[in-house]
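Priority: medium. Attachment 1 of 2:
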């Protein structure tokens, strides 16, 4: 036991000495100045984009622009209290800028205020933080996303001749995510007065499991044959809704929308189970946020092309354009941009559908 304890203490000492040596070397290389520290906070991992795309793309761009920059990364797993601890820890560790995708964007003003008191700039990433002024906001035109989803659903119902023959179900995103309210508003702009909305849900945590339950409730309440379409705010929830409809015995799933161009959703679109998705150029979003973060830690103040009202202030903003994608557009958007390779998409039963769309 003593031997093991001694070995553990010795190993700890080696690690501490090594860490100190690394810090000294870093300070020497930077003329005695500590390396700038950029902290990235993402809200959850149920939506595959965050760990698969946002984080690696952001980190790669920061390293390309600022090799000496130190990166701190945290994922809150949809826990607002956990995210608060992560942000406070990063400030304690000396973060020079925060890039924050808030779990609850309406409740993080006190955290932003802590950063402001410490003179640490804040960039709201993907979700608009309300209730306080801060430095930048980087996202997509979220109202336009909802409008595109709504119009795509109307187009699909028009082709099928079912717009006036039944009801649709709306499965919106998390009520703590302000982007959800924008998607919802955009969809209603297009849908209201043109279709009957039989059931509508705000889905906690963007949970596919909860979306499946919501769809099951809708089928029970409205009747299987009366549901002619589903407005799902993202692909994960679309997957849950589709699972519910398959379980209920639908021979053909009615048109259903999505967002994020998740790989499973792209495959479902090709095979006809999902009608469309909104393709967000996450690379551009992540890289724009990284450029702002690096510029900010270097004392620059880039001018943003737009401003967004968050209820308290006009926030300098970069708003990117969403792209609606149906089966016939996958090749010229998602594949062309290298978001996925044909080999990733065209597996198993999807191969024949890829061939029909010229994806090889």
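Attachment 2 of 2:
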């Amino acid at each position: 036991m003593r031997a093991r304890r001694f070995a553990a203490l010795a190993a700890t000492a080696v690690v501490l000495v090594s860490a100190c040596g690394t810090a000294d070397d870093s300070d020497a290389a930077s003329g005695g100045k500590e390396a700038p520290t950029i902290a990235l906070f993402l809200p959850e991992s149920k939506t595959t984009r965050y760990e698969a795309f946002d984080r690696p793309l952001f980190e790669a761009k920061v390293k390309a622009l600022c090799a000496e920059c130190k990166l701190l990364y945290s994922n809150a797993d949809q826990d607002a209290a956990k995210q608060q601890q992560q942000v406070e820890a990063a400030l304690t560790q000396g973060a020079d800028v925060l890039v924050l995708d808030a779990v609850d964007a309406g409740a993080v003003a006190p955290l932003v205020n802590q950063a402001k008191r410490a003179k640490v700039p804040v960039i709201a990433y993907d979700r608009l933080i309300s209730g306080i002024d801060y430095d930048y906001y980087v996202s997509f035109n979220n109202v336009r996303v909802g409008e595109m989803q709504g119009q795509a659903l109307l187009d699909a119902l028009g082709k099928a001749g079912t717009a006036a023959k039944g009801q649709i179900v709306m499965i919106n995103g998390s009520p703590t995510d302000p982007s959800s309210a924008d998607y919802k508003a955009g969809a209603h702009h297009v849908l209201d007065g043109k279709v009957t909305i039989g059931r509508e849900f705000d889905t906690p945590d963007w949970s596919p499991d909860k979306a499946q339950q919501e769809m099951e409730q809708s089928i029970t309440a409205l009747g299987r044959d009366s549901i002619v379409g589903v407005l799902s705010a993202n692909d994960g929830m679309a997957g849950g809704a589709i699972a519910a409809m398959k379980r209920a015995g639908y021979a053909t799933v009615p048109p259903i929308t999505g967002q994020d161009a998740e790989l499973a959703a792209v495959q479902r679109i090709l095979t006809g189970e999902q009608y469309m998705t909104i393709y967000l150029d996450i690379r551009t979003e992540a890289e724009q946020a990284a450029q702002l973060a690096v510029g900010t830690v270097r004392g620059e103040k880039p001018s943003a092309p737009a401003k967004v009202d968050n209820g308290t202030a006009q926030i300098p903003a970069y708003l990117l354009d969403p792209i609606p994608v149906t089966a016939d557009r996958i090749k010229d958007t998602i594949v062309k941009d290298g978001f996925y390779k044909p080999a990733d998409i065209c597996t198993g039963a999807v191969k024949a559908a890829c061939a029909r769309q010229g994806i090889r």
